[in-house]
Amino acid sequence: MNDGGPGPRTLTVVRQEKTLGAARDLEFGLELLARVRSGDIGPTLRLYRPAPTVAFGQRDTRLPGFDAAAQACRANGFEPLVRRAGGRAAAYHEGTLVVDHIEPDPDAIAGSKTRFGYFGELFADALRRVGVQAAVGEIPGEYCPGEFSVHGTDPADGAHRVKLVGTAQRVVAGGWLFSSVIVVENSAPIRKVLTDSYAALGLDWDPATAGAVDDLVPGVDVPAVEEALLSVYAGHAPLRTASFSSLGA
């Protein structure tokens, strides 16, 4: 994938079997971006299940309730961090799948908005393959709202939609990192920590918009979503696998 569409270059798929810790996991994605940009490694897809984390946006840190929000995260067993990308606070844990897609690109800035739409549709396609009625678009009251959020519709209540995938992007001269979080299992702790932290920040949202894939399609787990995602990716680019140790983390 390059400039918002498929590209001929092979994408190396790396499964990180264990978390490096919340802060290190976040930082390592930026290190991979620097290495892709310099030509040290090629286009890379990193998949991992993270430690419980709340990633705040830069704007959140300027709100008077930020310190209280960070404390609320710790009280719920989540580590508060601040990401370099925009947006509002997003929460994830071991029941989610983080997907870091990193590619070199001589004109990375030009394709930045196109990339959001491209990946939104890609993730929606993957979720449909596991039975989710998935679509792309912001839903009213969602946490960390975004035009290209991927949401699912409750099959028992067509008026109830939940956010399932949040995306963020880091663009530098010569490359980009597109990071996505798919909430697959165990949404209750995520809903609780977001409720407490958003209250501390003084931000309005609807907790009913926070859910997981298995809330909509019982029995679906992270490995099933990962398999579906790679099946979709295989239709967009040649894939090869490599060990996580090959990245020298």
UniProtKB/TrEMBL annotation:
Residues 39-241 form the BPL/LPL catalytic domain. Signal peptide: none annotated. SUPFAM superfamilies: Class II aaRS and biotin synthetases. It comes from the Bacteria. InterPro entries: aa-tRNA-synth_II/BPL/LPL (IPR045864), BPL_LPL_catalytic (IPR004143). This is BPL/LPL catalytic domain-containing protein. It comes from Pseudarthrobacter polychromogenes.
